[in-house]
Specification:
Layout lengths: L4 E10 H7 L3 H7 L2 H10 L10 H5 L35 E5 L4 E6 L3 H7 E3 L2 H9 L11 E4 L11 E2 L5 E2 L1 H8 L7 E2 L3 H9 L5 H4 L3 E8 L1
Antiparallel strand pairs: 1-3, 1-4, 1-9, 2-3, 5-9, 6-7, 6-8
Length: 218
């Protein structure tokens, strides 16, 4: 077990599922290294690539939230171009959950601002609470990945059915309370946009993503 604790929430899937549904799987098979092909393709995306036009933002699924910030790598709101923020890197839009010797899951974030909010590592408070805040020895390995039905705020009131079709929260909020309904949190439009636009997943593959919380030491 590593000495750094990582915590994340977002929209993800098991790594083995991602390898199965990825559109570039044949390319990865030919090169013999799925992770390296994915990393090179994704990490090469620029802030210009990861800019959503107004038309692309309007093409969101029904009932899903509008992408307020078009620059997905912006560290803060650009306010329609009035501000010039710092920009992150494409690789900051995902996190790999490690075991720690191999990848278990992948988690995606809508944009850089949410990546900063939804993921943290090497946090002293987290470390102290895990090491000394409970009776169990930290070396019992508190790693976990939990796929949940509830979307991450502020996307928590945007729903899809078991087939990934958008639903109105007002019409289905009561059905949503029943775990057997299959209703779950919808994948944010920004994630769906960049994963399909740049050939990582098709629409069916994106529908495999689920809201997730994870903690791991690496």
């Amino acid at each position: 077990m590593g000495i750094k604790i990582h915590r994340a929430t977002g929209y993800g899937m098991p790594w083995k599922t991602f390898k199965k549904v990825a559109k570039f799987s044949s390319e990865a098979d030919a090169k013999g290294d799925f992770y390296e092909v994915f990393r090179q393709k994704f990490d090469a995306l620029t802030k210009e690539d990861l800019f959503m036009t107004k038309e692309e933002r309007k093409l969101r699924p029904e009932h899903s939230p509008y992408a307020l910030e078009p620059h997905l790598l912006a560290e803060s709101l650009t306010m329609g171009g009035r501000y010039t923020p710092e920009f992150g890197r494409a690789e900051d839009l995902y996190q790999l959950v490690m075991n720690p010797d191999y990848i278990t899951d992948i988690i995606f974030f809508p944009n850089m601002m949410y990546a900063n909010s939804w993921y943290r590592s090497d946090n002293t408070v987290d470390y102290m609470f895990e090491c000394f805040g409970k009776d169990a020895d930290v070396h019992e390995s508190p790693d976990f990945t939990k796929y949940i039905r509830h979307g991450v705020y502020p996307y928590n009131k945007f729903l899809v059915d078991k087939d990934g079709q958008p639903l109105s929260y007002d019409d289905y909020c009561m059905d949503y309370q029943n775990p057997e309904s299959g209703i779950r949190g919808a994948v944010p439009h920004e994630i769906r946009w960049y994963l399909t636009k740049f050939g990582f997943l098709d629409e069916a593959g994106v529908n495999e993503l689920r809201p997730v919380i994870a903690q791991w030491w690496c």
